[in-house]
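Protocol step 4 of 5: obtain the predicted structure for the target chain.
Materials: sequence only (see below). No template structures provided, no constraints applied. The aim of this step is simply to have a reference model before the mutagenesis design in step 5. Sequence pasted as it appears in the construct record:
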Amino acid sequence: MSRQAVIVLGMHRSGTSALTGALARLGLALPRHPLADAADNPEGFYESQRVVNENFKILTAQRCAWNVTFTLEPAALQAATPPETFAALHEVLHGEFGDTGCFVLKDPRLCLLLPLWFPGLRRLAAVQRVLLMARHPAEVVRSHMARNECAEDEVLLNWLHHMLEAETMTRKLRRAVLTFDDLIRDSNATLRTALSTAGITTPRTLQDAAPEIARFITPAMRHHAAAGSARIGPAHLAKLVEASWHAFLALARNPLDAFALAALDDARGNFSLIRQDMIRQGLRARLPPGL
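Step 4 output (structure tokens):
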């Protein structure tokens, strides 16, 4: 079996930790230096501290932060990145996963920064697979409001930016889109479909790991629930949020849905115009001191 790198993408607070924890119970290798647990995620983040540190440095150099990214253009950043940076990122990956088997890489910042890690991933694993986690944007907003006191429009800007960029940059890779709602409701069926769709082969079978996963993924993981319309936020964002959410739901059912892909292309184009207008006006969201 060719070595696989499974990349978990999704906006912060979208259930990517739950998904990655399930993949760990299916036998995929985790990083050697994991991010420490926290009160808001006591079951663990399943992220590499070293990868997170590198992504933090990259964002800071671009005058961005985890919650302020609207000025970041992933394609332009990739084109401007010198070869030595790609080599350094490969060394980080090699240190975390070098002599393991198939492994899982997760950090929500990769929704925007994955192109910088691709060369190293390709050197480390012959096959790359992607799982893109989508969660109702109203639930994401409520989670960020509760944890970080973020404003609704700030969260929605980030949700659109992360999700739209992650989708477009992985379109040529074999992948699956899944929803947090489905994972919580029926983890076994949701994982079976996602693994098959993305062509992911795990060291342990889902049948063997299902009891452990069922004890890990429970309704108690869900602290914020939303139902109904996703047309939320200020008028210039609400329509894009709603259209994007319904497109991700469609891709979860059919990853080749042409109408959903076209809708996401339209949303990304329109969102790019909004971002450009914000940049022209010199608008800045909350930034850490010194940025």
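Step 4 remarks: The chain has one domain: 4-280. The two ends are 46 Å apart (CA to CA).
Proceed to step 5.
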